[in-house]
Amino acid sequence: MRPGEFELDMAGIARVLNDTQAVDALERRTARVVAEARATGPRGEHAGVHEIDTIAVGETHHTDDGAVVDIDWPSHVWHIITFGSIHNPPYHPIERSAQNNGLKVIDARGGGR
Length: 113
Prior knowledge:
This protein is α+β, with helices and mostly antiparallel strands and 113 residues long.
């Protein structure tokens, strides 16, 4: 490396992203995502009367790329609310809320988006 060149330290970035302060900030941001998804998600006969209320902050995992916080949605109709059906439009409540809060959803059930 020549003088003045920058070399990215990926291990250093991972350490910063797994640091207690970074994880605390990510957990707080994830709680805002969950609250917004629950507040703005669909309600009613076709969306499941209280299905949106089951969205919750899950576990935090430390990875080589930084911390990841799960969002749990133990609903049997989450896929219909998210992706829609012949009778229901797609709402994507978690994805929209995450995007509004500057986060990315990586869905373990279906890959990253």
